[in-house]
Specification:
transmembrane helix, mainly alpha, 22 helices, 4% strand
């Protein structure tokens, strides 16, 4: 049987073939190269990076600033504005003089740095999220190519890019940190693999990226390191585990050899911890230490008590009522093509069982994907965007399953070029879908005409003082677009309810309704239940926004 090359198809064992000729042609031992380890063409990595970056840019940047800002990203935008106005970079304060410790400041730092260089309004605050999204897509492609082959990486990157939730739900087109966290996770996995002998430099790079992740979300790099360490420990040889770990790996033998082995493995573990910990602490610690010194009680209580412990315990949030299996159904439903996730998990299990040379790669994807899902499922507070880092290995698993199926079909039909046509066809199909998504779907989804038309129809009455307008959880634009008649401080460019908390928002609403002037109230549709509970909220408008008019008779 000929050696596998870039043009050869892998051999597959078919139990139904009885003739000796077919057995010689298609049968293979478990140790032969699989479909996914055929050498990639020259310069494939460069072409993969360029292609994915170009397609991702076409999807993410057009109409990035058209849709109205959501509550969380508007708060981050206000923190960015405050950095620019006050010059205070270490302690965020969206509503001075109150400090803000919900998120570390890296994303706001980046937005403030490039603010004057970028056009538009919302675009300024979402630019870096789109950049992180491009990095996440490219790193997913590179990791897929590193694990298997370039077609797997291309399909995996496009699957991630075209995931609807990853695009619009706290994702790459949202001015927040989750796209950056996903990019960090993909980069850490790419640096770590293959994990047989990871050098201290690679561990230091992993620690540095964990430090960056910890500056995007509170201690965001720690769970990523935990997942990688779990896989690294699982890959240690039996002697290393027996020397350092208790439990079923403990060895009963003693003697000088055991002591020398234990010392060597202990030194290696100390070196790994130091290589990871030093850059992590150097990057992330200054912000945590400075704010702890400035606000010793408030910082510790809020960040660790409310944010981290609150996420684990639920903290009375609506997301804390979701069941433990929330992600098992939410992730496949995040986009239609992610329904391939369940068969992809079965494919991973079969590949790990039947193909020795792919067992480690299958285990790596399983630990990186399922392990992350299991880790965040322990917390009571559950949101889909918490699972975005797991989308990277899960997309690679789906891409590997698609390419493997293409080669198996071609082998069964004994048509060598069919596999290449099928795999390239899937890549072209996903690229075309990404283009359609950018040109048609996202353009329609970002159209804010309903909100603006509502305001424009009432603009004359607002200017004459016959009607006042109250914006609740709707971004207040700069300039003259929203300023007239707005019941909010002029310097506030963001939200009312979200800025003051629920009680403050209710107080503002009651004050507006008590005014002798009719009030036009505009707020997102997800706040409809809150407003309907108020008196004199009379009608719903459009599909995304609710408009209520108080007639004060």
């Amino acid at each position: 049987m000929a050696d596998a090359t870039g043009d050869d198809l892998p051999s597959i064992r078919w139990s139904s073939m009885t003739t000796q000729r077919r057995r010689r042609k298609f049968s293979a031992s478990m140790d032969e190269p699989s479909t996914l380890t055929i050498p990639a063409p020259r310069h494939s990595s460069l072409l993969l990076v360029a292609g994915l970056a170009l397609i991702a840019s076409v999807v993410l940047f057009p109409s990035l600033g058209r849709s109205a800002m959501e509550p969380d990203e508007s708060l981050y935008a206000l923190a960015t504005d405050q950095i620019r106005e006050s010059g205070e970079w270490w302690t965020l304060s969206p509503t001075p003089p109150h400090p803000y410790f919900n998120k570390p400041p890296l994303y706001m730092w980046l937005s403030a740095t490039t603010y004057d260089l970028l056009p538009g309004f919302e675009f300024k605050y979402r630019f870096w999220s789109a950049v992180f999204g491009i990095v996440a897509v490219v790193m997913t492609g590179l990791l897929g190519a590193k694990l298997f082959r370039w077609e797997v990486g291309a399909i995996a990157g496009l699957l991630l890019l075209t995931n609807r939730s990853f695009l619009i739900d706290h994702g790459t087109r949202f001015g927040g940190m989750d796209a950056g966290l996903t990019a960090c996770y993909a980069a850490m996995l790419w640096i770590y693999w293959p994990g047989k002998s990871v050098s201290p430099r690679r561990w230091a790079a992993i620690g540095a990226i964990a430090g960056v992740a910890s500056m995007l979300k509170p201690l965001g790099g720690v769970p990523m390191l935990l997942v990688i360490f779990v896989f690294a420990i699982a890959r240690w040889d039996r002697m290393a585990r027996a020397s350092l770990l208790p439990g079923p790996w403990r060895m009963s033998e003693g003697g000088p050899h055991r002591q020398a082995s234990t010392l060597a493995h202990a030194n290696r573990l100390i070196l790994i911890v130091a290589a990871v910990g030093l850059p992590l602490v150097a990057i992330a610690a200054p912000w945590y230490v400075i704010n702890h010194l400035r606000y010793p009680d408030q910082f510790t209580t809020h960040l660790f008590g409310q944010q981290i412990a609150g996420a684990i315990s639920g903290g009375g949030d609506q997301a804390g009522d979701r069941p433990w299996h929330f992600y098992l159904t939410a992730v496949p439903r995040s986009s239609r093509h992610f329904l391939l996730l369940m068969p992809a998990m079965v494919w991973l299990a079969v590949m790990a069982w039947r193909r020795r040379e792919q067992r480690s790669a299958a285990g790596f994807l399983a630990v990186a994907g399922i392990g992350w899902i299991a880790l965040i499922s322990v917390a009571e507070k559950k949101f889909l965007h918490y699972a975005y880092p797991a989308f990277v290995p899960l997309a690679i698993a789906m891409g590997g399953m698609i390419i493997d199926a293409a080669y198996r079909i071609s082998c069964r039909l004994r048509y060598r070029s069919l596999a290449r046509w099928l795999s390239n066809g899937v890549v072209v199909l996903l690229a075309g879908f990404a283009g359609w998504l950018a040109v048609a779907r996202l353009e329609a989804m970002s159209d804010p005409s309903g909100l603006w038309e509502t305001y424009r129809r009432s603009e004359a009455a607002i200017r004459s003082g016959q009607v006042s307008v109250l914006l609740v959880d709707v971004p207040a634009k700069r300039g003259d677009r929203w300023s007239d008649g707005q019941i909010a401080r002029p310097q506030m460019s963001i939200y009312l309810t979200h800025m003051h908390g629920q009680r403050g928002g209710d107080a503002e609403l009651r004050a507006a309704l008590a005014s002798p002037t009719p009030v036009l109230i505009i707020l997102p549709a997800n706040k409809a239940a809150t407003l309907n509970a108020k008196e004199n909220a009379v009608r719903r408008y459009a599909d995304r926004y609710l408009v209520a008019i108080e007639l004060n008779q």
